[in-house]
Every structure is written in C-alpha cells, then in structure tokens.
Amino acid sequence: MFDDIPVEVGLVHAGERIRKNDMYVEMGGPEIKEKFELVKVRSLDVVQDDAITVIGPDISDMEPGKKYPLGILIEIAGAQLEEDIEGVIERRIHEYANYLEGFMHLNQRYDIWVRLSRKAYNKGFTTLAYFGRVLMRLLKNELPIIERMQITFFTDPEKIPAVYAEARHAYEARDARARGLTDGDVDLFYGCALCQSFAPSHVCVITPQRYANCGAISWFDGRAAARIDPKGPIFPIEKGDCLDTVRGEYTGINESAKKRSLGQVSRVYLYSAFTYPHTSCGCFEGIAFYIPEVEGFGIVMRGYRNVTVNGLPFSTMADSTAGGRQVDGFHGISLEYMRSPKFIAADGGYERIVWMPADLKEQLREFIPGDLIEKIATEKDVTTISDLVTFLTKASHPVIARWKPEEAGTVKDALGASPVFSAGEFPFQAGGFKIILKNARIYADKVTIVPIKPKRPGRGE
After folding, report:
1. How far is the C-alpha of 302 from the C-alpha of 9, rounded, in Å?
2. What is the mean pLDDT of residues 52-80?
3. Domains in the chain and their CATH numbers?
4. Element at 388 (helix H, strand E)
5. Against a cut of 0.90, is the pTM above it?
6. Contact status, residue 11 vs residue 101, Cβ threshold 8 Å
7. CA spacing 20 to 30 A to 71: which of 10, 350, 407, 439?
8. Alpha-carbon gap, residue 90 to 72, rounded angstroms
9. pLDDT at position 412, please?
10. What is the pLDDT of residues 29-62, one digit of tens each?
11. Distance, CA of 219 to chain centre
12. What mean pLDDT is predicted for residues 288-311?
C-alpha cells in the first residue's frame, strides 16, 4: 500500500516526538499565526480525485531548521457524505499523520504543528505529496463512502489568509450548532480514543455541553463518526445513571473510562477540575489552572507566549496536565467548553475565573457574565499573585468571598514574601529521590537559578 513512500508507515510510529535538534523543518507551530487543517464536502463535479497540490515552497525548497506556515485543505465528495463528517475527518489527520516515520503532527484545527526529521528527509521525504498520499489511502480505506478526494497544501504566507478565514468560519458554524443542545437532551455521549498513542490512559468524553479537549469534535461529530465507522476510535457511551448532577458523574462514563484506560481511571467528573477531573491528553486547546493563593482559576491558551500570573508558561503547565492523568487543579480544556454553561460549573464557573489573557477575554466576552467581565484580570492588569490579590479585592470579585479572614490582605503583607510558584503537582529530584509536592505554594524574597558546571580536571589529574 505504501511502496512508493520513502519512510515506513504504521501504528508503530504513532507517538514519535521529533525534538528541535533532530528536525529538518517545522511547519505551523506556536510561532506561526495562521495555520489550519480543513475538510470540506464538495459536489462530485468539483473534486479531482487523487489530486495533490502544493501552493508555496515544497519540502525540497525549504531551508533546514526554518519554520514555515502550513494550511491543509482536504476536499471530499461522495453521494453518502454529509457535512457532519468534516470535523471527524479533520481529527483523523492527526492520527494518520503520526503513522509516518519521522513525521510529527500535533494539535488540530488552527493550532497544527508539524515537524519532519532530518532522518526522514535523508530517506527521500522531500515533498508534502507523500503526506497527502498516505492521508488519501488511509481515509478512503477507512471510509469507502469517500468517492473522490483532493488535497491542497498551502505554505505560501500570502495565499494562506483567505483559506484560513474560511476555516475559522467553518469551525465557528459547527461549534454554534452544538450549543443548542444540553447534556440532558440526549441519551448517548461519545468517547474518543484518538490520542491514546500519546496518552494511553486518556479517553475523551464528548457531550453536547462538554466539547472534546482538542476543540475539534462536537457531539454531532461524535455521532456521525460512530455511525459511519462503528469500529473506529470514536464510540458511543451509554449515560447510565447520573450519580451527581452538579459535578457531572455518570455510571456509563465511569464504566467506559475504566475499560478504555485499562483500570487507570475509574471515575470522571465532567464539570469539575478537582478530585476526579476529566483526563487530558496533550492536544487540549487551553488549561484551566488553580491558583491556591486566591482560591480561583486562571486560563491560558496554547498560543500564549508569555508566562502566566503564577509565573509559569503554558508549556510547563502542559507537562503537568497531559498524559492521561487526573491532576487536581490542572485541567485541559477546549475553547468551546469555555462557552458552555457547564464550564467547571461544580467549581463555581466564571465566578471562579480570576485571570486570563486579554485576547482570550475579548474572544469570550459574550459568554462571560456581564457583571464579571471587568473583574477578571489579564496580563495588562497584573503580573504577580500579589498584584492579582490587590486587583481582585478592588474589583470586588466574587472569589474573595471564599477567602478566610486572615487571607484578606495581600499575600506579600501576610507572609512577608511574594509568591513565586504555585502548582497542583510539583515534582523535583533530591538526594536520589523523586519528591512530589501536592498543591504547592512556594514563597521567597529572591530566587537565583545558577547552572552547575562540571569542574575541569587540573594538570596531572
């Protein structure tokens, strides 16, 4: 099936990570503003079957070590195809791309990040057409109802914006459709195991009011995928009995999670970031992180490049969140979940949100209660926990009602030092042991980080 592809293709390569020192080129990623992957159902007469086009420099034209934009447009046609399948196939791009030896694909939609290894390039992987051929063959093999398919790769920064705008419009239209349903309106939820090659114990639960963490699969997408491909990675979950309406715990979800995670996860709360939070893989769009000093949550999205109010960047917190674990206070989320009335509803919802990037707040403005919008701090308002305490106090944020009387001043005044780090789980090595601090708060007047350099042997040593 893949004799004409210069690298191996198979499940064995899923989960392969390509580090910066090993990569030939990078496409998309956090430093590229406009990138996307979009699937559109078209009429049979406009799709040229098996056509692959690269608009812009192909891999052989790219400079080693450089970063390039990337847009992937897959157009499909077939008498039995419906628009509901578009998001499902988009998510399959992630799965099948990672079957390629030396080819790493992360994230989804407008967050894609691709790296090609030097080893793969040296084997002859010099064109995106190889990637396209693999996608075509695997998708048609899995979904025979696809009668025609053509793929266009965009790497020219001047050509991407127009199609990027079309992609963002398509994502928003799909998301808006799903907002009309509640979790109580349906008899089935759906699960997705597409990311288990990266996080074996993770199983995403998709409900009308809780989108997949990646932001790419709605309840409608899950329903379409399970119908078309009953043995695929997206499957129905019987709701069973509701054990807790506030936290969102269902017997059917618990049974499915236990089975799919091989016993690693036995209980799941859909609407809480504590005790039994929904697991996170690594493709989540953002993180809701607990800030114990103020009893509230901050939110950071994958594209945010600065450190957050707790002194940590997205990448550091992502390491504490991902892997299919249930970590109190570090909660992988999608943008669409933040538009849901069930967004961490058991923990207080937006009355518990105290910080988020300014761009994100503007993006969510119509979904945040009007009386709270100016009470949530951004990087333009505060940069430290001490500043955050002062801001929340002056703004009369509802979260201050959760503070104990002795906590009502600034943290610096109360403890004599500014907080420099807080985390739900903080591991470090000491004396040959790995020590894990749970819900850690570390305070210091000053922190100095000095690299340890090995001693040079003297003469005669």
Report:
1. 29
2. 96
3. 11-178 (3.30.1650.10), 285-321+348-461 (3.40.1470.10)
4. helix 385-395
5. no
6. no
7. 10
8. 10
9. 41
10. 988 999 999 999 999 999 999 999 999 999 999 9
11. 17
12. 94
